[in-house]
Design brief:
The protein is α+β, with helices and mostly antiparallel strands. Helix content is 58%, strand content 9%. It is elongated and about 85 Å long.
């Protein structure tokens, strides 16, 4: 799976798994199944109200199109209000982000939505699929225009396992000062670190690192995320038999 690597100004490195083509297609299919269901429901509702039997077909068409507007704007509105995700993307656990890994703006979501007319609908998706396959960051034309890409959020689910992957019988504790921490402290540290990692927010990582330096009274010669990772491993190794 292709990855998107980001280095922050503080030299904290975050790595994303780019969403696969298959997951994006399935998410798209789910979303447009929802839209089609909504359109059918609206048609049925308008029919039940007897509007199709009126003498003014323009009035009927106008009312029908007005009620369909939410479906027309569905991708743009969902991504704007749900942090880059539609229902299909939520189910497939993928999301739209800026190419630097941060949250996209409303303008960028709008550009993606407008460009979908060209790279998805006018050519039956062929242009969009070709662009996703050919570009380094798996971007369709809309992503290129908006400077965005689509990442998988599944990798974040495995963070807890990766934290302890290197704890073996031969593991050496780097900071014995972790004895000062309680189980509650360790769990809070792990949760905050996980939140910072998931949000790709290095300010959270830095704040947590600085707090641990103060609390443990140590001077780590490593990057903030490495220091936090070692502290968590040290704690769980120290109290592994408790």
């Amino acid at each position: 799976m292709h990855k998107l690597s980001i280095n922050t100004p503080q030299n904290v490195k975050f790595e994303y798994n780019l969403a696969s083509l298959g997951s994006r297609i399935i998410a798209f299919a789910i979303d447009y199944f929802i839209i089609m269901c909504y359109a059918i429901m609206v048609y049925y509702m308008v029919s039940r109200l007897g509007l199709f039997s009126t003498s003014d077909p323009w009035l009927t068409a106008g009312i029908y199109m007005l009620i369909l507007l939410p479906a027309f704007f569905y991708p743009f509105l969902m991504e704007t209000f749900f942090n880059g995700q539609t229902i299909g993307k939520m189910i497939m656990r993928i999301k739209v982000v800026k190419i630097d890994g941060t949250r996209a703006s409303i303008y960028q979501y709008f550009i993606r939505w407008v460009c979908s007319i060209v790279d998805i609908f006018l050519c039956a998706g062929a242009l969009g699929i070709s662009s996703i396959i050919a570009t380094k960051h798996a971007q369709r034309i809309g992503d290129i225009a908006a400077d965005t890409t689509v990442i998988s959020t599944k990798q974040n689910m495995a963070l807890q396992q990766t934290l302890f992957a290197e704890i073996t019988q031969e593991y050496t504790v780097t900071f014995p000062q972790v004895m000062r921490l309680s189980d509650k402290d360790a769990n809070i540290i792990k949760d905050i670190y996980k939140k910072g990692y998931e949000r790709k927010d290095y300010n959270i990582i830095l704040a947590l690192s600085n707090k641990l330096v103060e609390l443990l009274d140590v001077k780590p010669h490593m990057r903030p995320e490495e220091f936090i990772d070692v502290v968590i491993k040290d704690y769980y190794y120290t109290f592994r038999d408790r």
